[in-house]
Amino acid sequence: MGQTKSIKIQVKPEVIKWAISTSGWTETELISKLKISESTFKDWLSGNITIKQLESLADKLKRPLAVFFLPKAPDEKPKPKDYRMLPKKEGKFNKKTILAIRKARYLQGIIQELTINIENDLKPKITFHKITDNPQEISLKYRTLLNLSDEKQTTELKDAYKVYAYLREALEDKNIYSFQISMPLEDARGFALSDKDPKVVVVNSKDEIEARIFTLMHEFGHVLLGETAISLSELESQDKIEKWCNQFASNFLLPKELAQTVFSQNKESLIETRTLNTLKRKYKVSKAMLAYNMFNLNFITQSVYKSILDRPAQVKAEGKQKIIDPRTQDQKCIAELGHKLPSLIADNMDKGFITYSDALNYLSIKTKYFEKVIKRTFK
Question: Can you list the pairs that 222-225 forms with residues at least 24 positions away whose Cβ atoms lie under 8 Å?
């Protein structure tokens, strides 16, 4: 077996170059990580590589080994349009962000195939809009369609996690799939895939829960505009599409009339940390979004708005202790994929379109967690 792995094989150079160029890794980084010489790397780029070397490269690039035996580089959907305000980084993403986009594209393809199998409708149950449409009016329309009343938001849904879960499921009912995938926060807070069905919204699982709620609705705004886009959900963005999505999301979560009433009632202490914390807990929104609404409704000046954004977050000191995720694999699976996709997978398996092994592979879980995931899906 060792001899077989050391035998050089011919791989199409364009396939290797494509796999590297779409990975987010630089050539220098790969040479260092794989502990190879520049001359060896040049050999690989020419397609002259051993099976063992190819396995190492495939593992580092997170690509199936079979991809490298394709006769030519495959066509891939373009990356989402970049709306991040990052100097000299337009269109350039961290490798973990690229992996998140690839994973979302993969899941989007799986959903399409599985939905066609059982003859369900892939089309989103929404109305698409233009940048010239009023985002505040549209936000109120969707607040009604998604049945998010003031009472539900402040009382029935006890915390921000419940609001997030509720909105995810409400979007799933409209055939908008949403995933939570880890990416570097400084690189992206979320993205939307709207160039084919099903429409997909991805939120950065590393973010604070209130920020995730905002990103979920911000990226849904991109879907409503038919935009495939990636962003940092920056409230201070001057891009007209980002501003539209920010206005849609902020007014959806705290409608203008409600905001005016609440801010007027707390006018004397509006920018105090205590007041901001109280409103944050009650409406399950971030302090940044509260300040954004205050500024837009002329309750505070731009300088005060920026001063609120610049306030340091109160984070408890944890030293260098490693944070251990207490969730089980089935909990992590539902947190990442939502409820609709596992349900779709289970339905396809029951009807014989996919095998049990396929189902485990799509869900990325071990056998012992499968039944738990399905139980949580239909809870």
Answer: 222/192, 222/194, 223/124, 223/126, 223/176, 223/192, 223/194, 223/199, 224/126, 224/127, 224/128, 224/129, 224/138, 224/248, 225/128, 225/129, 225/130, 225/131, 225/194
How is 158-179 classified by DSSP, letter by letter? -SHHHHHHHHHHHHHHTTEEEE
- pTM over 0.85? The answer is yes
Task: Identify whether the C-beta of residue 285 lies closer than 8 Å to the C-beta of residue 254.
Answer: yes
Give the sign of the dihedral formed by CA 25, CA 31, CA 32, CA 33.
positive
Compute the mean pLDDT over every residue in the chain, rounded to the nearest whole number.
91
Question: In whole angstroms, what is the distance from residue 285 CA to residue 160 CA?
Answer: 8
pLDDT digits (tens, 9 = 90+) for 192-249: 999 999 999 999 999 999 999 999 999 999 999 999 999 987 888 889 999 999 999 9
The domains located in the chain, with CATH, are: 2-69 (1.10.260.40), 98-309 (no CATH), 326-377 (no CATH)
Residue 153's pLDDT band (boundaries 50, 70, 90)? very high
3-state secondary structure of 206: coil
Of 4, 11, 102, the C-alpha closest to 48 is 11
Handedness of CA 227, 232, 236, 239 (dihedral sign): negative
- Counting DSSP H helices and E strands in the chain, the numbers are 19, 7
Which string of DSSP letters, residue by residue, matches 45-78?
Answer: HTTEEEHHHHHHHHHHHT--GGGGGSSSPPP-PP
Directed axis angle between helix 340-350 and helix 367-377, to 10°?
110
How far apart, in whole angstroms, are the C-alpha atoms of residue 248 and residue 219?
A: 10
pLDDT digits (tens, 9 = 90+) for 9-49: 888 999 999 999 888 888 899 999 999 999 999 988 988 89
Please list, in sequence order, all residues whose beta carbon lies within 8 angstroms of the beta carbon of residue 379, skipping any fewer than 6 positions away. Answer: none
Residue 3 is predicted with a pLDDT of 53
Tokens of 233: 């959900």
pLDDT digits (tens, 9 = 90+) for 49-92: 999 999 999 999 988 888 898 999 888 888 899 998 877 777 78
**CA–CA separation, 160 vs 282, rounded Å?**
9
